[in-house]
Amino acid sequence: MTFRILIIISLLLFSDLFTACDRPSNNGEVLLSDPGVVSFSFRHQFDEDIPGTLDLIKEMGLTNIEFSSLFGATAAELREMLDEREMICTSYGVGYDTLVEDLEQVISDAHTLGAKYVRVASIPHDRSGPFTIEDARRAVEDFNRAGRILKEEGLHFAYHNHGYEFRPYEDGTLFDYIVQNTNPEYVNFEMDVGWVVHPGHDPVELLQKYPDRFYLTHLKDLSKDVERNYSGRVSRDMNVPFGTGLLDFPAFLKAAQNSNIEYHYIEYEDYDVVEVMPGNIEYITNITK
């Protein structure tokens, strides 16, 4: 090999090294710069004043909303208000019964809102007793059917876990049963990290177990004093500012980089949301590890 060729190779290697150093590092740093928000967080404000609440949310720096209600407006009216503010709706949450019994209207409203995803956040069951395999089997059947129709209409279906699905079943949990028996072509998931830790599970481990099945998240933190159980219920004051509770957000957001997750939505359920939300946004958008 001639000296001239060695010089050329050295220059090329140096150029590659310089370019790599000039790029953001990929050594585990996480920066979530543009989160969305769940409308449920501002449900009381939306009930009083939809346009004013949209203005409030945008002033906080959030422009992407997952609507879990239309708050008495029509989908067309909401879309007009969003467009006027250059805001978007990427996910539309509906009730289980609405999904099963009025899917045509769900499809129409989702398209009008501009949503890509249709989400259901709870499976009806007898809350005086445990969530059962029969409840899970019924959900699997309904989700597969609705998810297929939604996909044919250009939409994606996601089920949002709610804690009670993590009861043990065979070699795993009832949530495992739902994931493993739904068709990934039609049914995927929105991970609510709070409703994973509440029954005692780890969101990072769950995401690593099913990296291709989660497309959305709800980011929220629960108090370290919360009682761990399968109820799918906590008092509002168990919602705490990000970084003060049970959740390891840096670890979770790092794991999310190796998954199919497309949108993160911030959720805070207590009544002091207007005071707490700016700090949650700042925490998430500046987090690194």
What portion of the residues fall into strands of 2 or more residues? 15-25%
Physical arrangement of strands within the biggest beta sheet: 1-2-3-4-5-8-9-12
H/E order of the elements? HEHHEHEHHEHEEEHEHHEEEHEH
Determine the structural class based on helices, strands and strand pairing: alpha/beta
Overall tally of structural domains:
1
Write the layout of secondary structure elements.
Blueprint: H1 3-22, E1 36-38, H2 43-48, H3 50-59, E2 64-67, H4 75-84, E3 88-94, H5 96-101, H6 103-113, E4 117-120, H7 133-152, E5 156-160, E6 168-169, E7 172-173, H8 174-181, E8 187-192, H9 194-197, H10 203-209, E9 214-219, E10 221-222, E11 239-240, H11 249-256, E12 263-266, H12 273-285
Parallel strand pairs: 1-2, 1-12, 2-3, 3-4, 4-5, 5-8, 8-9, 9-12
Antiparallel strand pairs: 6-7, 10-11
Description:
The chain is 43% helix and 16% strand. Mean pLDDT is 90; it is low at 1-29. It has a single domain (30-285), classed as TIM Barrel (Alpha-Beta Barrel). It is globular, with a radius of gyration of 21 Å. The chain is an alpha/beta fold and 289 residues long. An 8-stranded parallel beta barrel has the order 1-2-3-4-5-8-9-12. The chain has a two-stranded antiparallel sheet with strand order 6-7. β6 (168-169) and β7 form a beta hairpin. The chain has helices spanning 3-22, 43-48, 50-59, 75-84, 96-101, 103-113, 133-152, 174-181, 194-197, 203-209, 249-256, 273-285; strands spanning 36-38, 64-67, 88-94, 117-120, 156-160, 168-169, 172-173, 187-192, 214-219, 221-222, 239-240, 263-266.
